[in-house]
Amino acid sequence: MRACVIRATGSLDHLQLADVPDPAAVLGARDVRVAIRAAALNHLDLFVARGLPHAYTFPHILGADGAGVVDAVGAEVGSVRPGDRVMLNPGISDYACDYCRAGEHSLCVNYRMLGEHLPGTLCESVIVPEQNVAIIPTVTPSLSWAEAAAFSLVTLTAWRMVVTRAQTQSGETVLIWGIGGGVSLTALRIAKLRGARVIATSSSDAKLEAARRLGADVTLNHRTHDVAREVRTLTNKRGADVVVENVGGATWEQSVRSLARGGRLVTCGATAGPQVAIDLRRLFWHSWSILGSTMGNAAEYREIVRLLGSGELRPIVDRVFPLQEARAAFERLDKGEQLGKIAVEVSE
Ligand SMILES: [Zn+2]
């Protein structure tokens, strides 16, 4: 089958289209094979291509998000049938450890991501456990393959951050950094669903204008504004109740300075650097919570799929590239030019 692979890590120069063996012909009893129609890119894919500190099996197929048609199921699969149109939840748990049995699948001790620890979705066929597929809901207008592929990773991540971890309440103020990115844009939609007031930042005025159209109450260009000071002014000196971070490095200090008393800072990424500082005296005095978050559990995934079906959450696709132009898709993501998700059409 055709696939977008790397045979070495280090740069996007290693990306190539290749013919690789089809996945195993014999399925596990609870496994589902999906003929991929579209995949979607995440920052994770850039990190994988540049090199993460774990063993790779080359050629390694990139891509975590995907959607397609079920074309085979294992003997014990009961929730989907061949011909069903499905989206993939790219976080694969063992569904057996203590965390899994407690319903916390993203804390699984054997948690693995498609396209990172496992072969990815930028190819024609993927095998995943039954628990990791969801039937694409029927909505009007119907979801394109690219939209379905773009849904899972960022929506699950943003949902757990804003709702489960930060417990965002109606009337609270939420500061969201870098609104062009998929997680940030989805966090904006979810925070608005929760009835919060959203302050969104970007270095691009065009993206800020789009953020206002998508519901942001206030937008700040973080290149030209002192974000923490503006947040204080906008909240009558109170500060933001919730700060949604995935940048780290440069934005961290501003994030902390923006927090209200009792505020929650939730982070799922460190695209601008993993090492940050915190003044513990201010942390305990102001009763701040610093919350880490990664992906989400099966109950959270069911909930976001339900909200997709009710029309309350819909993925925002920036642009769709054909598989043979996957390199251009990665470069667009790398330059941060996108507003929403970049998708790759794998087959018609
Ligand atoms: Zn587990």
Description:
This protein is α/β, with parallel strands linked by helices and 348 residues long. The protein has two domains: 2-152 and 296-345, Medium-chain alcohol dehydrogenases, catalytic domain (Quinone Oxidoreductase, Chain A, domain 1); 155-292, Medium-chain alcohol dehydrogenases, catalytic domain (Quinone Oxidoreductase, Chain A, domain 1). The chain has helices spanning 43-50, 98-101, 145-165, 182-193, 205-213, 227-234, 252-258, 280-285, 298-309, 326-335; strands spanning 2-6, 15-19, 31-40, 60-61, 65-73, 85-88, 91-92, 112-113, 125-129, 133-135, 173-176, 197-202, 218-221, 240-245, 259-267, 289-292, 317-322, 341-345. Helix 3 (145-165) crosses helix 4 (182-193), helix 3 (145-165) packs across helix 9 (298-309) and helix 6 (227-234) runs parallel beside helix 7. The protein starts with a strand and ends with a strand. The chain binds zinc ion. Zinc ion is lined by residues 93-94, 96-97, 99-100, 108-110.
Helix-strand layout with pairing:
Layout: E1 2-6, E2 15-19, E3 31-40, H1 43-50, E4 60-61, E5 65-73, E6 85-88, E7 91-92, H2 98-101, E8 112-113, E9 125-129, E10 133-135, H3 145-165, E11 173-176, H4 182-193, E12 197-202, H5 205-213, E13 218-221, H6 227-234, E14 240-245, H7 252-258, E15 259-267, H8 280-285, E16 289-292, H9 298-309, E17 317-322, H10 326-335, E18 341-345
Parallel strand pairs: 11-12, 11-14, 12-13, 14-15, 15-16, 17-18
Antiparallel strand pairs: 1-2, 1-4, 3-5, 3-9, 3-18, 5-6, 6-10, 7-8
Helix pairs in contact: 3-4, 3-9, 6-7
Zinc ion (ZN) binds next to helix 2.
